[in-house]
Fold this protein.
Amino acid sequence: MADTTLFHDDLTAMVIRIFQGAGLSPLNAAALARVIVAGEGDACKSHGIYRIEGCLRTIKAGKVVPDAVPQVHHDDSAVVRVNAGGGFSNAAFEAGAPVLAERCRTTGIAAMVINDCTHFAALWPEIEALTEMGLAAMAMCPSYASVAPSGGTDPLMGTNPFAFGWPREGGDPYVFDFATSVAARGEIELHRRAGTPLPEGWAIAPDGSPTTDPEAALAGAMLPFGGHKGSAISTMIELLAGVMIGDLTSPEARDALGSLTLAPAHGELIIAFDPKTFAAGRPGDPFARAETLFDAITGQGARLPSQRRFKARAETRAKGIPLTDAEMRSLERLLAEGLNAV
Ligand code: NDP
Ligand code: PYC
């Protein structure tokens, strides 16, 4: 229930002040505020303003470098490396994205490896930044061990998000972005706060039995989506965006952090594709052919992923982002008390 509304710019300014008050550099505060407000504005509450407290806890615990300056390294190859220097991933992505796009236009495909970052965010803002440059892209990262592999009972994988985007001329891109667990851990936390049970099939309790109790789920293990299929995709993410890029896997990230209440540190892998380069010399325009496919999907009444988000964005851009009194009070407390509030 909305008690007040704030426009994107006003909420962003408030969130920047909260983060700067907590010691984040202007570069990092602005990058975090942009993704958090984007989440809230697109009605993605699991990665909206509720994440601010977790970021502040992570800063207070000294587990993230608050004034990190990302270092971008590249040569003539297709791999762009960004060392986040122990800071949040968001400023690192923003620093590397233009270089990734330039390399991709030259080579047809290019990858950005982000190392040594703290990561809490949704991936779709990054995917949309690349589709806005006319590129198709995918992004993935580990998290920390909280998901049992299919057939197992102990938390091992992270909720390992996987996102993909395809640019569409004159319209919103095709974008999906999901946890490889049945739901993001943030969704479980929101159920715990609201005192509502989880849908069946999301999680198991510490003794391995199915549970709909958020507390038991957070203490036990979440389940991968799609059984063995989600489990395998999650494993792929551990391999490509952990092992392959020389960064932490989800069990290593959990052990390094020693907690599941702070944002974990690990790496991220983003791969960009130039569809025109791949389709060169072949019949048909790839963008026109993609539209035929999207029309066939929506033509039978199915919706495209992100349509709900884009609709929410259009509404909140026109009318402001709805916030409850409790959410406003929480923001004001974080602003006034800074790190003492967490
Ligand atoms: P959801 O299950 O809510 O949504 C997943 C995707 O499916 C979205 O693109 C969504 O579009 C789309 N979708 C949902 N329903 C339909 C439908 N009926 N038809 C077509 N498409 C549909 O996401 P999750 O809870 O799995 O993940 C939420 C967020 O959590 C993600 O942004 C992810 O990046 C983030 N996350 C981040 C982690 C990290 O370590 N940084 C870890 C895990 C998750 P729409 O939004 O329009 O509904
Ligand atoms: O919602 O699963 C999640 C998550 C983990 C880290 C950031 N988001």
User: Anything to note?
Assistant: The chain has two domains: 1-60+306-342, 72-181+224-304.
